[in-house]
Amino acid sequence: MGGRLRGRPSTVVGGGHVALAALATAEITAAESVLLTGAASGVGHLAVQLAKIQGVTRVVAAVGAADKADFVRGLGADEVVVYHDESWSDPVDVVLDAVGGDLLPRAIAALRPGGRLIFFNSGGGTVPAFDLLAGGKTITGLTMARFASTRRELYERHHERLWQLHRTGELRAAIHAEIALSDAASAHEIIEARANRGKVVLRP
Ligand SMILES: NC(=O)c1ccc[n+]([C@@H]2O[C@H](COP(=O)([O-])OP(=O)(O)OC[C@H]3O[C@@H](n4cnc5c(N)ncnc54)[C@H](OP(=O)(O)O)[C@@H]3O)[C@@H](O)[C@H]2O)c1
Prior knowledge:
single chain, alpha/beta, Quinone Oxidoreductase, Chain A, domain 1, 6-stranded parallel beta sheet, 9 strands, about 40% helix, binds NADP nicotinamide-adenine-dinucleotide phosphate
C-alpha cells in the first residue's frame, strides 16, 4: 500500500486522458502556473506529472492532508498546499479542479485575474457569479465523453502520447493498493477515507 510508482498501461492511459484533456482545455502554456486540487488522486497524480512533462513552470499540488505532500512532491510538484491552509499559493493562471464542492470558491479565489478553472469533478458546488466578474475569470466544464467525441483528433493524439510516455517510463501510475474484486468493499473503504495516493486497482 502507499502509492508506489509502477508502469501500468490501463491506469496511465485511463486517468491520463482526463489529465491531458483538462490541460488541453485550459490551453495552458509552459510559462504559466497551474494548481491541481485532488493532486494525489488517480487522475490528479498523473496530471501533476503531465503538467511538468509539458514544461509548466509552476505546478501547485493541493491535497486534503499534509501526509500526502511527499507523494505529490515526488511526482514533480513545485509547491504543495493543504486545503485547510489559511492561505493557498500565490495566484495561478489555471486551476484543474478534481474536487469541487465546498472547495470551489477557494479554487476560484486561487486564480489570478484572467485565470481559467477547468471543472471536471463529481463534487458539484455553487459558483457566485460575482466572483468571476471583476477578475474576468472563467470556468469551463469538461467530461471525457464530450471531449472524446467533439475533439476526436486531439483525443487520438493524446492516446498515442500516453502510450508513448508509458513505454518510455516518463509517466508512471502509482498503485496505492491492488485488491481482489471479491474484496471490493476494502477498496471502497480506502477511497471513502480519501487515503489513496494514486490508483486503487481491483483484480478480477
Ligand atoms: N469529467 C470526467 O469525464 C471525469 C472522468 C474521470 C474522473 N473524473 C473526476 O475526477 C475526479 C478524480 O477522479 P479519480 O478517479 O482520480 O478519484 P480518486 O482516485 O478516487 O481520488 C479521490 C480523491 O478525491 C479527493 N476528495 C475530495 N473530496 C472527496 C470526497 N468528498 N470524497 C472522496 N474523495 C474526495 C480525495 O483526496 P484529497 O482528500 O486529497 O482531496 C480522494 O483521495 C473525480 O471527481 C471524478 O469524478 C471526471
